[in-house]
Amino acid sequence: MADAFHPVLWHLTADQIAVGSGTPAALPLGPEIPYIGSPDNVEGVVALSATRLLVVKYADGALYRIDLDPQAPQGRTITPITGATVPLGSQMILDGKRLVVPDENGLSVVELADDAASGTVVTRLRDPSFRDATAVARVGDRYLVVNAAWNLPPPTRSRACPSSPDHGLDERDESAAAQARASRLERSAGVAGIEGDVSAVPTTEVSRSERSPRMISTAATRRG
């Protein structure tokens, strides 16, 4: 689990999730991933395997590969992923060998090398219906995108909740969160688009020979 307020990832076991209680284990991210004093740190994480994670840092869009190893210092080895950045990246997903990263302006699609040590941004999907895109899920042959819509009135709003009584937000964190929301509202104030919480866009096929994106169609088309 990513934590934009603290320089760690949190690990919850299957048993903890099943019973709804327990203390998560912290995986330190520093000093390899520089921490800044705002909630604009690591906001997205995906698992390539049981021992390899990928994360994106919101502030500068840097991508990192994290290899879990109990013999390594702090239990992990962190390697920057070269060749691609996704500023404002947040709750991304893994779609085959591609990272699909919400970046508030839409979706950025990053094709990864076999070892995930490098990547290439192959397309940035943009559409007026995107309003501060912050999360994405793949359903069939479409991506469903959650719009945070920071500059819209309720009920389109977000709320932060602690993951456990032991790791809640203190007053400084709540203040930082309020400042971050205000900052993001200013950034999104000039964005045109329709009101709403969810946008659906066709998935993108990537030509591995040309390394260029191709939209399947404006209507949903199932992959072969």
Describe, in plain words, how this protein is organized in 3D.
- Helices cover 11% and strands 38% of the residues.
- It has one domain.
- The chain is mainly beta.
Uncertain runs are: 156-178, 181-198, 203-224
C-alpha end-to-end distance: 33 Å
Tell me what portion of residues adopts beta-strand conformation.
Answer: 35-45%
Average pLDDT across residues?
A: 75
Please provide the count of β strands. Answer: 15
Structural class estimated from helices and strands: mainly beta
Characteristic key phrases:
224 residues; mainly beta; four-stranded antiparallel sheet; 2 helices; globular; disordered C terminus
Question: What's the short version?
Answer:
This protein is mainly β. It is built from two helices and 15 strands.
Layout of helices and strands:
Blueprint: E1 8-11, H1 14-19, E2 25-28, E3 42-47, E4 52-57, E5 62-68, E6 76-85, E7 93-95, E8 98-102, E9 106-112, E10 119-126, E11 133-139, E12 142-147, H2 171-188, E13 198-202, E14 204-207, E15 212-215
